[in-house]
Amino acid sequence: MVKEVRIGASPETVFGFFTDPEKLTRWLCEEATVDPRPGGVNHQRHLGDEDNPNGPYFMRGTFVEVSPPRRAVFTWGYENEEVGVPPGSSTVEVTLEPNGEGTLLRLVHRDLPEAGRGAHARGWEKMLARLARRAGHHGSESERGDVMRVENVPSVRTEMLIRRPVGEVFQAFVDPEVTTRFWFTESSGELEPGAEVRWEWGMYGASTTVSVKEFEEGSRILVEWDPESPREVEWRFFPGENGTTFVRITETGFEGTGDEIVAQALDSKGGFTIVLAAAKALLEHDVVLTLVADAHPEGFDS
Asked: pTM of the prediction?
């Protein structure tokens, strides 16, 4: 299996994303222990995905070749028998070639069993796209030095009291029959445990895929959306006095240069403030304010 991707950073920068545990956890795995020299360990903890949902999964590899900043080779396999790729049974070769002001990355994954090739192909496709974003942004900041730096990537929290019972407010964000009256215009289904749905904003010609990661009836929803630049959104619903509900929405996972992260955070805060205001008007007064549609009306360029 062969995958190639161009990354907007130098080979020196990209190479570190295969040998530095902190950088590995920014694109490939949740935890990493690495000793980047021939015979050194390359151990990773991975969460599940659509192909293997019952994580975590423990990859146990060994570095075979480490030639910075152009080439790294390591074995690849999992302790989890259900994956069907035992430790040491396959090999990953990574080659980095200068390409203009960036790098052409070529990844070859050898000796995968037939049953595991599809899942690994989809996995590498997704992870390498994430690497291109994160290494490219890292390179643009560290190599150019002319953009704003963000030391701590922010999470954005938006809150509002809605004077309706918690069950009704929770259902308003789960059931697209209600949600389409104050937020998006179409949905492929309800939010429920393990669901993957498609939301569309017809007035803007925009859409996104939403994957439900955690679901606690009446109290909490955690999703990941926008697969090309994945972020997590959490809704918390707190019952209050006199049949009221306090809603807290938190978005995390912003990526990019400092300028881009700040812009994303501002958009998130403004967008979810509008959504909560529209939900409040609908649930408390049965008024459809069309706030989302009217936020960026056609003919008024910013």
From this structure: 0.57
